[in-house]
Design a protein that fits this description.
By secondary structure, the chain is mostly helical. It has one domain. The chain is built from 13 helices and no strands. The longest helix has 30 residues. The protein is globular, with a radius of gyration of 18 Å. 47% of the residues are buried.
């Protein structure tokens, strides 16, 4: 598969948005429950996409191709929405019970899980990509792990979410050449939001004042993280190797660190700067050579 640099740009832009979304999410769940937060952000993001579905936005990202298989479109939205519902909520529940640094490191294990899944499916992964995966993991360790690495219940939840995020990326990679990617993003967030709303209704209290406090965070993750970034990911992943797409997406951790510095005034240590440099190097190597197979 040849490198599609437009797809690379789409994934990188999504990673930037997701990175800064860590700040918004951390602030938002201080006011409302995790499932409530996921439900509202999903309805905002999915609703916005479907509302704008007939506008030029669709044609800018998809070249206006007409997809006639409505059954396939519905099936893709249901499967991707179910996976998104489970993975996002597992991650948010886990973050509440572990440190942000460990959560960031464990989440990025999807860059290892995806090629492992592909390998057991019989697909060939080049030595260069395996090298980049290992290099990126070293970088993430320097960036995220600053104390002893012990596992808690939260860590296990985050690891399970990483597995589900991996499956989600692969399922998106399967469906995006077959269905309208913009509508798929809207559909998957509506499905995920509806499922989250059901859980929130039974298990989380609803507080209007809490909702008011979380509103700025909800707008950011609903509009930019959900509507814009996930659409960019879906469009970008159509013409990109899933393993490389995962590596590029994992740069969100670096942009989260940058967001913490710019917005929360958190200063990067020398160790963290080294980690950033290693991860950038690893993702750069994935783009050298022009193909992903050996």
């Amino acid at each position: 598969m040849k490198t599609n640099y437009k797809s690379v740009v789409y994934i990188l832009l999504a990673a930037v948005i997701w990175g800064f979304a860590f700040v918004a999410q951390a602030e938002g769940i201080e006011h409302i429950g995790s499932f409530t937060f996921t439900a509202i952000r999903g309805f905002i993001g999915g609703g916005l996409i479907l509302l704008l579905y007939k506008t030029p936005l669709k044609h800018v990202l998809t070249t206006g191709k007409v997809y006639a298989d409505h059954a396939m479109q519905r099936r893709a939205g249901l499967w991707c929405g179910l996976l998104l519902f489970v993975s996002i909520n597992l991650q948010q529940l886990g973050i509440a019970e572990t440190t942000t640094a460990k959560a960031g490191f464990i989440t990025t294990l999807y860059i290892v899980i995806i090629p492992i899944i592909l390998f057991f499916r019989g697909e060939r992964i080049s030595p260069r990509i395996f090298f980049c995966i290992g290099l990126a993991l070293v970088g993430f360790y320097f960036l995220c792990i600053t104390d002893g690495f012990t596992l808690s219940r939260g860590d296990i939840l985050i690891f399970l979410s990483a597995i589900l995020f991996s499956v989600h990326i692969l399922v998106l990679s399967h469906f995006t050449p077959l269905v309208d990617p913009v509508k798929l993003n809207g559909d998957q967030f509506i499905v995920g939001a509806a499922l989250s709303a059901v859980v929130a209704f039974f298990f989380e209290p609803f507080d209007i004042s809490g909702l008011s406090g979380a509103l700025p965070s909800l707008l950011y993750v609903g509009v930019l993280s959900s509507a814009v970034a996930y659409t960019l990911q879906i469009v970008g992943i159509r013409d990109l190797n899933p393993t490389v797409a995962a590596l590029l997406s994992s740069l969100e951790s670096i942009f989260a660190a940058i967001g913490g510095f710019l917005i929360l005034h958190q200063v990067l240590s020398v160790r963290e700067i080294i980690g950033c440099a290693i991860v950038f190097t690893a993702t750069l190597f994935t783009q050298l050579g022009g193909s992903y197979d050996s």
